[in-house]
Amino acid sequence: MGKGMVKEMKREPTQRKEGVSTMEKRILVVDDDQVVGKSFERVLTNKGYHVDTALSGREAFEKYAGADFDMVFTDLRMPDQDGFEVARRIKEMNPWLPIVVVTGYGTQEAEAKAKAMGIAEFLQKPLTPSIIEEVAARIMARPAAATATATSAAVAHESVARNLALFFAAPFIGLAYILVFPFVGAYTIARYGMRLALGK
């Protein structure tokens, strides 16, 4: 959304950090505010990245399907699909792709959810060009194994939660079966006996 748009400021040309090559690195920026998307594009293009922008989750998925991206910036609040839904669907296709969620409406609950999903970073607006540059450079410099570990931890967390839910639900499922089975069995026996009595 438009709240807390990227801060524009006059900056001296900066040198690329040693050891971090931006050549052919492709970034997808998803924000329903076109001004914000263009601000990200201008900042990151100046640092040598190839940047694609999308105004909605649907457009983001279309662009993602047609290109290989190295990371994604996505706004949290958007009309059709929020940033978490965008991140979830992209991670279903590529669990190791680093995704950064950006919002002007951050809460501790939202930040915790982002961490549980394996989101690379959760940023609060407004952002300065230097913050955008630093985050992109930091994430691009991370080994792929680090991103994979974060995603695996998120998947493991979800699996544990699901198994715990099944563990606690199992006794109740068994109890329901025990209570219902005698009635079902009695009904079946009675029906069978009636059919024998009628010679059917």
Please give a structural write-up.
With 200 residues, the protein is α/β, with parallel strands linked by helices. It is 55% helix and 12% strand. It contains six helices and five strands. The chain has helices at residues 34-45, 57-65, 83-93, 108-117, 129-141, 144-197; strands at residues 26-30, 50-54, 71-75, 99-103, 121-124. It has a five-stranded parallel β-sheet, sandwiched between helices. Strand 3, helix 3 (83-93) and strand 4 form a beta-alpha-beta unit. The longest helix has 54 residues, at 144-197. The protein is globular, with a radius of gyration of 26 Å. The relative contact order is 0.12. The model is unreliable at 8-19 and 153-161 (pLDDT under 50).
Notable traits:
globular; alpha/beta; 5 strands; 200 residues; 6 helices
